[in-house]
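Weekly structure sync - notes
Attendees: PM, LS, DV (DV joined late)
Agenda: review two folding runs queued last week.

Item 1: First target. Sequence and structure tokens pasted below for the record.
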Amino acid sequence: MTLQKNHNLSHEIVLDDVKCILSTTDLKGTIKYTNPYFSEVSGYSKKELLGSPHNIIRHPDMPKVMFKLMWDRIKDDNNVSMIVKNRAKDGKYYWVTTFFEKKYHPVTKESDGYLAILHAAPKNAIRAIEPLYKRLRNIEAKYGIHASQDYLIKYLMKEGKTYDQYVAELTQQKNLVSEFFKTINKLTS
């Protein structure tokens, strides 16, 4: 299956169900590597992406608290999966389930950046997460990111789930991506 433009969904780019977008960044989020599918989907050339901040694809519909959560988690050596709405160079958007992982230098064992693996988000996950993201954005606009974070924490408590459980349930991942990379890391360590 190839990349398709779906004109019925108001400028949404529909991603291939099999292909993944891959990227690596340094510790500050500057892009060091992208696979060809990243350019195909985003509309940015590899030259435009390399050396740019990863937030070049950030969509304004994404609540800031979600990126705070992501950075807090990966800086503490915890991987994180998120449902993210990204923006292409031409202003179109695409939804992904993103897995972020901290990477370590093979010799020095010091952290040298991050890996992001993005694949098409399930439609049911998008439908479920959009109202929450809208609510978080509205709270951020009125009261700031800390109020948004408090709301997210209370929302998850009400759902009786951790953030990881919530995302895994929405995407039906059951941490398969995370488990795959844990296995790979064990084999290469």
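Item 2: Second target, run right after the first with the same settings.
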Amino acid sequence: MEVGEINPWFFQVEPFEGESISHFLGRFRRANELTPTGLGKAVGIAGAITRWEKFRFNPPPSRQQLEALAKVAGIDADRLEQMLPPAGVGMKMEPIRLCAACYVESPCHKIEWQFKVTQGCQYHHLSLLSECPNCGARFKVPALWVDGWCQRCFLSFGEMLKWQKPS
């Protein structure tokens, strides 16, 4: 009996509206028990996953790379492209920023929070947080957000809302 090529299968993860590629990649990797390197090898773009999770888009993802990732992730390449900054929009790689009010409504990191031009949340008219208001810990890259709370003191992102100031 001859065994044909075995194609791997992956658990699908539905993207949130406005979700950053970093957050989506972290959720997809955890659902499939993959490291950034493991996902990069599965997609055929070793190294790129780690860069994208840290908002490093130089060089920007190519259409071919997005299509390869889309095939593995089971979503459309155009949907992945929406998780990236628009052409010409600069990214703020550090600090990672958060609107607690948005997170309560949709538990994900929004790509727009990391745009250099973003000063505050345009929906809630609140300043963005860049560290835990309780203990001062800087937020980790969104790919590492698992439970929606500070990695040091475990204050939930939703509870941080009371510390956000009007922008």
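Discussion on item 2: Residues 21-31 form the longest helix (11 residues).
Action: LS to circulate a short write-up before next sync.
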